[in-house]
Write a structure and sequence with these properties.
alpha/beta; 8-stranded mixed sheet; about 30% helix
Length: about 190
Amino acid sequence: MAKAARPLFIGLCAVLLASCASFSTPPETFDLAPPRTASIQGASRAQLLIPEPTAIRTLDSQQIAIMPTSLTVEYLPRAQWTDRLPRLVQLRLLEAFQNTGRAGAAGVPGQGLAIDYQIVTELRRFEISLESGSAVVEISVKALNDQTGQVRAAQIFQSSVPLTGSGNAASVLALNAAFANVTDQIVGWTLRLV
């Protein structure tokens, strides 16, 4: 091959490889279902701020966590959340409080509410546990008085839902059910507390 043609050949190969890569199958993208609120008891006139939950790096992404053992983390193949998981949980919790119609108001930082309480959360578990064959969601919650900075109360909420099928959709369905259970617990507890 002539020296002048070699750079052209290499460039053509690079373009062909890039175009082949662009035809790869995109990952399935999943959302958390809008929270149900019909069975939630309690009411409050308090205005609530829902900050983004804290989470370890394995949960602070769009990837969907799988725990083959209690010490190993993998991710659901070719699957992702619609947004970073902490942001998604924050917005679904906000939606749950708003949907009840039983809170004075609920918002996220930057919305200019006169806040009574911050509902501070930490994602501890949000995964498919292969050891137990279930979806596990565990969220730690603190109700923080925004005026005094004191924690009114703190609690850990957890739900485990068995997997009833195989594949990405079945895994996400179980995670949605576990998250819905935890959301109901958090919203009910908060409205009774504040």
